[in-house]
UniProtKB/TrEMBL annotation:
Keywords: ATP-binding, Nucleotide-binding, Transport. This is ABC transporter ATP-binding protein. Residues 5-239 form the ABC transporter domain. The keyword Signal does not apply. The keyword Transcription does not apply. GO terms for molecular function: ATP binding; ATP hydrolysis activity. It comes from Croceicoccus mobilis. It comes from the Bacteria.
Length: 318
């Protein structure tokens, strides 16, 4: 698949204030984005997500490393490159006295695109803003202002679109409209990179997922591959009678005896279905051993479980 964005060795170090040491917001980041994909970048607050987006969009000057997009080098062709990138920022930054229609149309002109009233109308209608086109931004709700930011980012028809926490604090209706818009953009060949705290959204929408923490990329892979490699199965068997110890027949399975011998807990598998097979084998063994149980509570890892584990492990080793 064609590469649309290629980042190599990207580092951003901010000088410390006073006697404080320098802060490494990005540490030798390598990242490749494929044309037409939806890529979710996950990370806790302060992980470096917004700094990375700012570097690609020309708002943050890297300390070292390279950024290439559309075959262009950021150092030499940043104006041409930036004109093909859309950004929905996390923070609101609009003229509150400007009218919706003029604000969105102005954004299109900023990137050298010819006036196209029909296109602006299409964008506003897609985001349910057409009825608010003559309203001043100050008169809009927070959710509607967020819609305007998305409209401004789409006004110049970018090939690469960044969405930095686009659904943070917005209503369910906007969230649904925005994901419908993203589906349409993907059909048109637009590449989307999003950061989000709603990991279930990334799990549902993204083709690939990257995890960043403390300025380092911890993992990048296809979503299904991550689930298969790092996912696991958990199951708890509530026993009819407590056990003093586990029978030897369970020694080959990843099980522990918990809750004063009243629960057998299974934690294993690899996200490929192996865990489910092992839980079934565990149940059969309990029946053969005449160990009764009254309930089974079983669950599979979610992307959020994997994300939390990766971040915790990174924190423990740093």
């Amino acid at each position: 698949m064609e590469t649309i964005l290629d980042i190599r060795g990207l580092t951003k170090t901010y000088p410390g204030r006073g006697s404080a040491p320098p802060v490494d917001a990005l540490k030798n980041v390598d990242l490749t984005i494929r044309k037409g994909e939806i890529f979710a970048l996950l990370g806790p607050n302060g992980a470096g997500k917004t700094t990375l987006i700012g570097a690609v969009c020309g708002m943050v000057r890297p300390t070292s490393g390279s950024i290439h997009a559309f075959g262009l080098d950021m150092k030499h062709d940043w104006r041409t490159m930036r004109a093909r990138i859309g950004l929905v920022p996390q923070e609101m930054s609009v003229d509150i006295f400007e009218k919706v229609h003029r604000s969105v149309a102005y954004s299109r002109g900023l990137f050298g695109r010819k006036a196209d009233p029909a296109r602006i109308e299409e964008v506003l209608r897609t985001l349910s803003l057409w009825d608010k086109r003559d309203s001043q931004l100050r008169a809009l709700s927070g959710g509607m202002k967020r819609r305007v930011l998305i409209a401004k980012a789409l006004a110049h028809d970018p090939d690469l679109l960044f969405l930095d926490e686009p659904t943070a604090g917005v209503d369910v209706e906007l969230r649904r409209d925005m994901w419908n818009t993203i589906d349409k953009l993907r059909e048109q060949g637009v590449t989307v990179i999003l950061t989000t705290h709603y990991i279930e959204e990334a799990e549902e929408m993204a083709d690939r997922v990257g995890v960043i923490n403390k300025g380092r990329i911890l993992l990048v892979d296809d979503k299904d591959a991550i689930m298969g490699r790092l996912g696991r199965t958990e199951a708890e068997f509530t026993l009819s009678q407590p056990l003093a110890s586990l029978p030897a027949s369970l020694s080959d399975l990843p099980v522990t005896l918990e809750n004063d011998g009243r629960t057998i807990a299974f934690r294993g598998g690899d996200g490929s279905g192996l865990g489910k097979e092992q839980v079934a084998a565990l149940a059969q063994t309990l029946v053969r051993e005449n160990i009764g149980y009254t309930a089974i509570d079983q669950r599979e890892s979610s992307l959020e479980d994997i994300f939390v584990k990766l971040v915790e492990e990174e924190g423990a080793t740093s």
